[in-house]
Queue: 2 jobs
Job 1
Amino acid sequence: MSLEQSPPDGFLEDAAHYPGGHAAGVVFPRTPGEIADALRSAAAVLPIGAQSSLTGGATPMGELVLATTKMTQVIDRSAHQVTVQAGLTIAAMQETLAAAGGWFPPTPTFAGACAGGVVSTNAAGAATFKYGSTREWVDGLVVVLADGTILDLKRGEHRAHNGSIDVLTATGRISIPVPGYVMPNVSKRSAGYHAAPEMDLVDLFIGAEGTLGVIAEVTFRVLSPVPQSALALIPCRSEPQALELVMALRRASLDTWRTKNRCGIDVAAIENMDARSIAILREDAADARNDVSFPDDLAVVLLVQLELPPELTPTDAYDQIGGALTPGAADSALVRFCRMLAERDLLDTTELAMPGDRRRAEQLIAIREAVPAGVNRRVGIAKRDIHPGIAKTAADMVVPIERFAEMMEIYRQGFQGRQLDYAIWGHISDGNVHPNVIPRSYEDIERGKDAILEFGRAAARLGGCPLAEHGVGRNPIKQQLLRQLYGEEGIAEMREVKRALDPEWKLSPGVIFSSS
Ligand SMILES: Cc1cc2nc3c(=O)[nH]c(=O)nc-3n(C[C@H](O)[C@H](O)[C@H](O)COP(=O)(O)OP(=O)(O)OC[C@H]3O[C@@H](n4cnc5c(N)ncnc54)[C@H](O)[C@@H]3O)c2cc1C
């Protein structure tokens, strides 16, 4: 085989630091044909992108690692679409698009992730509230099946009919059964196989975490022009106050999109950090480092990403803010936003980064990113100093926004009832947060897992999904959350889907569910 190969060192773990990674070797295909060669020659294959998976799904357990690192071409580009190879990073794709004034909206926080990886996990960024998750932006895929068959799929070409999706390939007909479970109706979901009565075959491979086929190429829908954004870091005095503001901003934005009002508030994303997250920022001096001073009476910090008309100049933006509270100020999105904050007595303590003020925007984003970094560092220290079995113990759950306050109460009671230290932050505009244990002993990890399983049952009961954006991977708790969500029957239906496309169980064995 002419495929480039190397020993597996450097590819044995993903960002979850899942233990025990080992591999038969690594291959670096450059084309769908070379992917097919690799699949035909190996007993088991694990496709990987940037290995930024937070679930162990990109950690090999004896398979041949199929690294897409060399598949970085932009194949085709138009005003509305871009077709790229699977190994192109989202950051590189954004750069290419920006040169022509376009952009790809559902970017995950980690823009070093690859096209194939974000599709395989149905990744979602902070801006899901406005733009949805990756799924809504995929128009087509080139997928290589476990037996080397190459499928060139366009959305709309293969739809489910009478409980199955039929595909005619060069070697015969494949009939894929559609599972009968009902997926939670929420804005983001990365919880096993997509299933709906008239579903598209493209949707089956999105979020399948590499278990059904290797994605070689992706056609994404893109937008232009790139919008101007302002960021606002808003310290709130209580959780009810923060949630009331989130709901008001969501309502105003939905109204703006419906009426296409150019003066309306247009929010793409709202992130939240709870009181413990803020304490971590202070302990780590992340506030001082980023030139932010929080008031003392503080329960939640929100980070709002506000989209503004492309023609607004920085000077106009500053003028609008300066005059927002004066009677007779001209109507604009910024004026409305400032008034909304002033009505709640929040304007004076809000930190703003105006369009074009890149340095301030980076500082405000750094504040948000310092929270997971601070928690991960504390977990690492506890693992080193207290017990080697200590690991990140965190949930990634979404509920309909109307049930968010209820779910937050469940997170708090669940952790406090088990005497756990914890922090909660995330994408509040979607009702999606990441409750994290801050471990002080190995027992905290066991109690934390128990709490997470309880949260998963509650999220499902409230109409949400216990696996929102990171996927399932090899993580035993996430696999258990998936079983809780769809039951053993649902997992058995997923196994039937896998059997139809990968009867020898060659692709990513043990990811999402076990073979038996
Ligand atoms: C700092 C940080 C921030 C993050 N923020 C977000 C966020 O905001 N939103 C979010 O959704 N996720 C987030 N993640 C998780 C992760 O970045 C995403 O899941 C990302 O989409 C994974 O892309 P990747 O290229 O790293 O894939 P990998 O980690 O390499 O792989 C992920 C999964 O996809 C499969 N896979 C990869 N490439 C292919 C392919 N070509 N064909 C078939 N299967 C393939 C792998 O087998 C694995 O199961 C974050 C992770 C980190 C470390």
Job 2
Amino acid sequence: MAQPERAAIVTGASSGIGLAIARMLGQEGFAVTMAARRAEKLEGAVAGLAAEGFDVHGVAANVAEESEIHKVVGAHRERYERLDVLVNNAGVGIGASLADIQTKRLDMQLDINLRSIVLFYRECLPLLQAAGAEHSNALVVNTSSISGKRAEAWLSVYSASKHGVVGWTEAMNKELGPQGIKSTALCPAFVDTPMTDFVKEQVRAEDMIRPEDIAEAVRFMLRVSPACVVPEMMFVRPGDAL
Ligand SMILES: NC(=O)c1ccc[n+]([C@@H]2O[C@H](COP(=O)([O-])OP(=O)(O)OC[C@H]3O[C@@H](n4cnc5c(N)ncnc54)[C@H](OP(=O)(O)O)[C@@H]3O)[C@@H](O)[C@H]2O)c1
């Protein structure tokens, strides 16, 4: 297969924010490896974007497992041989008050929301460095949350993991920025995705941020010059208390 001009990996690409970003990247001419946990759901998302004419392929993987991260990056490297944009978006949130925090769920949130991002960076580093050396504008987008800026009771573990994503993004900008690899943390309030189904009786879906709004912000990130870094982007709804 001929090497595409630009290529991306998007995790959590089977629905919501990740799917919207994968579609936007397809529109921008990127070949995209889409990764998510459940194979059947991912296949549907990949088939949908392929039917829209985009060069996409799917790799079903649980990003909580290091070997599965190797699988995603290896499959991407074999197929596209380059990586210009990495979107670390897979995430889960499980609410619990302190006394009720289950160790298994604590580990799961830290592994998926934070540890996987560290491992993806490390595994993708040579490809990102090659893109940075070529055009000084390699980009890594890390989906944090508004909870990564303002912590919430009951969502304490989720909030801590998402604060970790913001801190990690800052560190990567300092470490990799000089190599032409920029990092951005996305910090949205409620977005209308399956993740927020639990709250839709209290907050109407139409009053939430749309996944496409987030994708537009990432499109903007593709346009800015190599001299400009946007380290984090916060998305709130009118009236949201900060
Ligand atoms: N929706 C919001 O209000 C909101 C606000 C702030 C931040 N976020 C963040 O946005 C990101 C995307 O969430 P979303 O709202 O778009 O929800 P979503 O539609 O439920 O998407 C979550 C995606 O992550 C994947 N995923 C979950 N666990 C995974 C695992 N262990 N390995 C691989 N993939 C996994 C899911 O695949 P499966 O369905 O197969 O598990 C799905 O593709 C998350 O990091 C979330 O924390 C969401």
